[in-house]
Amino acid sequence: MEKTWLITGVSSGLGRLLVEKALFRGDRVVGASRSEGTLADLQSRYPQRLSIVAMDLKDQRSVRAGVDRAFAASPRIDIVVSNAGYGLLGAAEEASDAQVRDIIATNLIGAITLMQATLPHLRNQGGGRILQVSSEGGQIAYPAFSLYHATKWGIEGFVESVAQETAPFGIEFSLIEPGPARTAFGGNLAQAEPLAVYEGTPADGIRQAARGSWVIKGDPDRMTDAMIRLADQEGPLPKRLVLGADAYAGIRKALLCRIEELDRQKDVAIAADFTEEELARL
Q: How many CB atoms are located within 10 Å of the residue 3 CB?
């Protein structure tokens, strides 16, 4: 059965691959990009099934207008993929004020605005699915990526909450958590100006690894295949889809460590409450 997708971040990487695969199997796609000339090659091959709407995630009015145009052009959009975003490499204090504002505006506020804008349309059509591309970095953290992690941890909390709010309307969410993949993501990293004091620290180690020694195992082709299978599967959708062996191992280790730490604090946590006897007297 033909589906219609709205996908952001389609100029390269996972976004472009999703567009190509959706079109190849006969689906319709509305791609969102800062330039309507994006994917001109695909538009010439699929003029009836691919359209592009201009959308700048740092401009909330642009996001809302783009979403409205997408839904006006399509009788129904089944799957929304919030995919646009980028990384910022550098220790927290190295980042400029503008770099902080820009990554939060794009990765977090832009994604939130996209979902705010799509929800009324999905609700009015009786439901739909939103796949939010997060990262393994939405559950674990590396030094030198603190601001990127702030946006990914933030969007994960937002999605978990909104999924509960909108479930009665037939709207489903899933967080996509890929590990490092062989896309242009690494080459497009924004760079904070290094401070000499961080030489030889964990942040510097990550910076050096990102320049070439980091072995990237993730296959974008396999990752996008998994995303399409997820979009097609019977509900309910899983809250998260982890993609990549390193992502699986890293997230599992982090979750086990958090549970162990939580369990060690059990008595302290319980002791912070009023007792039943005290509550009865209040």
A: 18
Around 181, how many Cα atoms within 13 Å sit in the side-chain half-sphere?
Answer: 23
The CATH number of the domain holding residue 135 is 3.40.50.720
Is 258 a domain residue? no
Instruction: Kindly state whether residue 275 falls inside one of the protein's structural domains.
Output: no
Closest CA to 57 of 10, 5, 99, 112: 112
- The boundaries of the domain holding residue 84 are 4-244
Q: Which of 159, 161, 194, 189 lies closest to 176, judged by CA?
A: 159
In this structure, the strands spanning 88-89 and 28-33 are unpaired
Q: pLDDT (tens digit, 9 = 90+) per residue, 152-210?
A: 999 999 999 999 999 999 999 999 999 888 876 767 789 999 999 999 999 999 888 88
Please give the torsion angle defined by the CA atoms of residues 147, 239, 231 and 10, in that order, rounded to the nearest 10 degrees: -10
254: in domain: no
Any idea which residue has 């505006």 for tokens? 105
Q: Which amino acid is at 262?
A: L
Low-confidence ranges of the chain (pLDDT < 70): 184, 186, 213
